[in-house]
Structure formats: C-alpha cells, structure tokens
Amino acid sequence: MTSADYLPILILILIAAPFAGIAILLPSVLGPKNPNRMKQEAIESGMIPFADARRRFPVQYYMVAVLFIIFDIEVIFLFPWAVSLNQLKIFGLIEMGVFLGILLIGYLYVWKKGAFEWE
Amino acid sequence: MSLPTLDFSLILPELVVLITALLVLIADLLWPRAASRGREQAPAVLALAGLILAGLLTLLAGEWSGATLQGMLVADALARYLNLVVLLAAALGLLLSWSYLPHFSTQRSEYYALYLLAVAGMLFLGKSIELITLFVSLEILSIALYVLTGFHRGQLAGGEAALKYFLLGAFSSGFLLYGAALFYAATGATRLADIAAQNAGGFYMLAGLALFLVGLGFKLAVAPFHMWAPDAYQGAPTPVTAFMSVGTKAAALVALFRVVQAAGSVPVGVWATALAFLSLLTMTLGNLAALRQSSLKRMLAYSSIAHAGYLLVGVVAGTAAGFDAVLFYLFAYAFMNIGAFAIASLLERPGFYAVQDAGIHAADGLFGRRPWLAVAMAMFMLSLAGIPPLAGFFGKLYLFAAAVESGWAWLAVAGVLNSVISAYYYLRVVVGMFMAEPSASAHLRLPLPASATLAVALTALGTLLFGLLATPWFQGISR
Which of B1, B25, B186 sits opposite A105 (nearest CB)? Predict the structure, then answer.
C-alpha cells in the first residue's frame, strides 16, 4: 500500500474534525443558558464526579450495564449477518445458532445466579 | 461467494475443552443440589475429564497437518506439542485446585469454567496463524486469567494482583494490536503466510514486529515488561499461578515463534539481537531479584521470570534445534515449576479472608516432617537450578547448545552464569529443608490431600524421567 491509499482517511479526518468542532461551538452560541450547580458538573450522569472513591454505589446498575454491553454487541454482530444471510444460507444460520447458543448459556447462568434481581 | 471449508476434526481438542467449560458452567444450574449430596467436586471431575479427553484426542489424532477455518488456524506438529504441554499443565494445576479451592471459595463451577476457558485460549493461540485469531485467542486466555488471579475475593492482595494484571495486560494488548495493524498496513494481509509471502520490508514491518515483541513480552513476563508478574503470581491462588506461569509462557512462545517466522523480511539479526538483549536482561533481573525475596511464592515468581529469559534463548537461536529445545524445556518446566508451586501451596495456610503466605523459611525442617515431600521439593529445586540428571539440566543444555551452534555463544555463557546465580536461592531452600531447624509454624499439622499428593508425585516422576530419558524424548521432538 502506498501513502495515496490513506488519502480517504485523511479526508475523513478533515471533515470529521470541523464537524465535531461545530457540534460543540453552535450550542454554546445558540443554546439557552441557565447554569446551575448540577449542570456545571463535568459529567452529568447522576454520579457525583468528585468524591471519595470508596463509597457505596448501587451494584445493580453495574450488573445491568455489563449485561447491556454484552447483548448490545450481540445485536451489532447480528446486523451484518442478517444482511448477508441469503449468501451464507444454512451455514450462516448454524454458525449464528452456535453463537447465540453460547450467549444463551451465559444468559441463563446470570439469570439463575440472580443478577437480574433488583432487591 | 464460496463458503469456507471447515474441518472441525483439526480443532477437536479445543472444541472438547470449550464444550466442557460450558457444561461446567451450567452444571450447578442443572444440579443445584449436587453440593449438598457430597458431590461438590463434580465440576472439578468434569473439568478434569474434559482435559484428559482433549489430551487423548491430541495424542490419538495421528499426523496433524493443514490449516482450517479459512487459514486462521493450523494443526501442525508444533500446535500438537503445545496442546500436550498446556493440557498437562492444566491437569496438574487442576489437581492442586481440587483441595486448595475449598479453603476460600464455594464458586466451584465458575472457577473451573474460567480455568477451562483459559486453557482453550492457550490451545487456540498455539494454532493461530492469523493476526485477528491470534489476538482473540490471547484475549480469551488473558481475560479468564485476570478473573482467576483475583478469585480469592476475601484477600486484598488478590484484588491488587488482578487489577495490576488487568491494567498492564490490557495495555500490552494495545501494543500487540498496534503491531498487528502495522503488519496489515505494510502488507494488506492478516494471515501470517500471506504476510511472509509479501516479503514487504520497511519501517512498518519493523515497527510492527517491535510492537509484537512488546505485546507478547508482557504475556511472557519478559523484562522490562515483567512488572506485573511478581504481584500477580503472588496474589493469585497458588494453583492458578502454577498453571498460568507455564501455560501462558508456552502459548505465547509458540505465537512469538510463528510471528517472527512470518516477518521474514525483517533481517534476522535485528529481531534476534533485540530478543537476545531482552533474554539477557530477563534472566539476570529475575535471578537477582529472586535472591532477595522473603516469600517462597514470590521467589518462585521471580524464578519464573528468569526462566522466561532462558526460554527466549531458544527463540533467539532461530534454528529448528533452538525451538525444539524450547519445546523440550517447556515440558520439563511444566513438571518442575508446577511441582515447586504445588509444595508452596501445601505449605500455605489459605483461609477465607487471607492466605498465610509460605515464607522463605516455611520449608525449613520439612525433611523431618514429611520426608518424601522434602525429597520431591529438592528435586524440583535442583532441576530448576539445572543440575543433572534432572529434566531442567537437559532443557538448559539443549537451549544453550542451540544458541552456541547459531553463533550466540555470549548469550549461552550469560545463561550459564545466571544458572549459577540461581543455584544460590534454589539450594537455600534445599539446605533449609534438610539441615535447618523446623520453622516456627512447624508444630502445625501439614495436611496432605490426596489430589495434591498425586500432583506432586506426577511432577516429581516427570522431572526425574524427563532427565533420565532426555535423549530419546528430544529426538522424538526433533523428528
């Protein structure tokens, strides 16, 4: 590969960088501004960003977040498979069955272990 | 579009290990009351059966040849040999876990499922001939080992070890992936054979190979990328340490060997010199640090770093004889190192909240308490130090001979000098066992569970037999 082959990537960067900049700049010019203490926090996610690290937090959120990531990735994996299924035919179906089967075992495991119980 | 040809018979042992892992995972969902009926070791039995079946399938497979899964995995003599080393180490480590795990955990099926997944990752790593597959296999084994390292949840050191191992391991995976990306940039291929065929030179290949060396160097615990190893090896449950110190090294060395072969366009002198200096640094640093340890387990951890240095000598030699020597040494190392860790685990007093680590003097006076255990430990120590007629001596002999043959005499000399240094701390343990007064905790009972005794007996037998029958075995490898 020569350097010229990487030109599209350079063009992509040149487009993406201003785009990100505009997305930050425009709201600061056009948007309404009613600052309050919570809105001024660095990350507005419900967690207090600056506090003692050794404090209690609800572990259920963590379990749900981890499981979400796993099944989120599964869905991302399903999309290209669904598009190309008419070429992959029965082979693709079986392969995806194996993949889903393994995930299903993991799902049953966390279920039985009580990861979904909120209380 | 043509569909890929899949020959599952070539990856049968790996599939057996994977399926066993899944079975073990759901075993206590299917039979929730097994534990109360005195069958709490059912997951261990299942896991051991899976490992033995995989080992038999590897042995009985006949001549393996050819790539499968679209040229992502290869089943060759090298992979077959690696299978045997990893499965042996895994089975021995499992025997140790059998009696060790109940001290602190009731999560048996979780432990053994992760353990088997780590084994599967190692087996796949040894068969990978494609960059993405190689990376995924490495991650499968690493992630399982991160969790296993911190499996002793009541113990603070275990959590520290797991976190350190995870952070540095994730970092090193980044290096490896960057190396893979640069290989791809230079050649436009991810299969090692295609990369070799391109014969592309230049900066990308060189930088890619350098990053690969860093990434795999982390997994091998090669200095200066070894910083995680002493803490991880000390904090992990001892059976896990025993297994991972051998299995990870074996699998990563095979991967390293395959990658340096593929990067044929990079002049041999360049990477061999880099590896030679890494090897020199690793064995010197490992041995010097081991001299100063006050914990038996940490001393063995540093000794394991030093052995990574010895093993690299065979890769540096770059010849077939060099890598045959590595393979022989891996087998010898599996026996003597796991044996040493087995005895360290017997001398420990693991509890739910903490492990009373075996100090450097824990083995003092062992000969008076458990004579056969002391004799076995003496064999492991002497073999690790490289004293004939034990397996470790012949392993080093073949390694250093291969280095001299391919013009790396100074590295062989450095290896021999290092063995001399290492003899000091190995022999100190031996002297303590036979001559010193018993340690302060010696009045406590020293229980000998049957499974761990079996592991010690097997490793001692292996250390002795591989020494006595070294020549025919080595010829068997080279053939």
Answer: B25
